[in-house]
């Protein structure tokens, strides 16, 4: 039987070995990044509360034919029925890299026809400007969050 001190040392060494294998966090220079100013107009709580933000799992994603910008997402929104949302983010993402990701969507917008396909919601992205060029990051969250989880 090992003493407590030896067992702790072995556990610490194992933890340090795992940390050494992790790649270091990429440093981001935010000094060249511009973001839009905050809205001055206020929205009352009841109006905000009408938006239904949900976690959605990307089941399928493909480029929309004849469109340079649009990606078609087939999403699990927790209801048991697939939801289709189109998003103009193809410049920033390839469809295959998004399959399996957990994203955030507003799911109670009326359907909007785009390129002959009804888009039933909106995926949430963060947009900024860097070195005079627009940057976009699709909001992705921890995969442990189940499809359909409501955001507050």
DSSP helix count? 2
Q: Which series of helices and strands comes N to C?
A: HEHEEEEEEEEEE
Portion in helices = 10-25%
**Oligomerization state:** single chain
Whole-number total of structural domains: 1
Write the CATH fold name. OB fold (Dihydrolipoamide Acetyltransferase, E2P)
Low-confidence stretches: none
Q: For the residues shown, what is the average pLDDT?
A: 88
In total, the number of strands is 11
Termini Cα gap: 50 Å
Q: CATH superfamily assignment? A: Nucleic acid-binding proteins
Helix/strand layout:
Elements: H1 4-21, E1 33-34, H2 45-48, E2 53-63, E3 71-76, E4 82-87, E5 102-106, E6 112-114, E7 117-119, E8 122-123, E9 125-130, E10 133-138, E11 140-141
Antiparallel strand pairs: 1-9, 2-3, 2-5, 3-4, 5-8, 5-11, 6-7, 9-10
Structure notes:
The chain has 152 residues and is of the alpha+beta class. The chain has one domain: OB fold (Dihydrolipoamide Acetyltransferase, E2P), CATH 2.40.50.140. It contains 2 helices and 11 strands; from the N terminus they run αβαββββββββββ. The strands form 3 sheets. Strands 2, 3, 4, 5, 8 and 11 form a 6-stranded antiparallel β-sheet that branches. Strands 1-9-10 form a 3-stranded antiparallel β-sheet, with no helix packed on it. The relative contact order is 0.19. The model has no long low-confidence stretch (mean pLDDT 88).
Tags for this entry?
152 residues; OB fold (Dihydrolipoamide Acetyltransferase, E2P); six-stranded antiparallel sheet; three-stranded antiparallel sheet; 11 strands; 34% strand; globular
